[in-house]
Amino acid sequence: MLKLLLSEEIATEAAADLRRRCRVLFVQAMTEWEGGNLIGQEPCARLKKAASQQLTLVTYNRLTISILLKSWADQERAHGGVIFLDEKAIPPRETGSLALALAGLAKEAESWDWTDRVFLLR
Amino acid sequence: MKADPSMVISMRLPVETGKRLRRMANRHGWTPSDASARLIEEGLRRTEFAFIDFRDTPAGRHACIQGSSLSVWEIMQLVRGYKGSVPDVAKHLGWPQVKVQAAVHYAEAFPKEINEAIAENEEVGIEALKQMLPQTVEFAPKRPVSR
After folding, report:
1. Is B143 on the interface with A (CB under 8 A)?
2. Closest by alpha carbon to A41, among B72, B55, B62?
3. Which domain holds residue B91?
4. Distance CA B24, CA B32 (A)
5. What is the second-level CATH architecture of the domain A3-121?
6. pLDDT by residue (tens digit) across A45-92?
7. Cβ-defined contact of A87 to B125 (cutoff 8 Å)
8. Quick check: A104 and B142 CB within 8 A?
9. A and B: number of Cβ contacts within 8 A
10. d(CA B20, CA B26)
11. What is the complex's ipTM, to 2 decimals?
12. Does B59 contact A7 at a Cβ distance shorter than 8 Å?
């Protein structure tokens, strides 16, 4: 079951837009998640908490998160899935395009088990 | 981050501080001298730049904005996307403009550090992701055809 956690660099408008497009899809913005208590914590702590709630992280940060995921894979630690975004294909300012792209993916993949899945959305 | 040319300054530290410094240096694979130089440089930058903090990430220590999960390079990537408009990025993030402006000032002072991180992020494309994480799948949703 796909449950999305949108990283902090993604505008909250995108979360609202996505909820309008996919009313059954669980979408949480990082700023709203856990009362904002995870904001400012290291990426590992956020990914750990997301994994415990089976949330799939959506992020433009391929640099840091990919290294973290590789480290977790080496340790055989599971996560709730990550959807990487390409800023050239879907610019962060185009929140409508992002919501549309995520809605397209959700349409195909909403019922999948997202454990350890990694997608690059373009 | 290390400035060149360098100078030698000897310091007297409490024993416990020295032990903590060694532990931190070991954790990062630095020498105690290198760790000291980095921490002093970071401390100076914190003093000189508003809202700047430093955080360990899997890609190294990065300058970030206080009270945020975002590194300065991530904010500058947004600034580029909004063609340099600080008000637009502030609106995007739901932040006061002054925090975005702080990131811009830091990036202007240390352009190499920030530009390198942005370039490294751009280099992590589908091939690099597949090498690190073989299960990676590329997905391009069907988009409406414009006429």
Report:
1. yes
2. B55
3. 49-132
4. 8
5. 3-Layer(aba) Sandwich (3.40)
6. 999 999 999 999 999 999 999 999 999 999 999 999 999 999 999 999
7. no
8. yes
9. 119
10. 10
11. 0.93
12. no
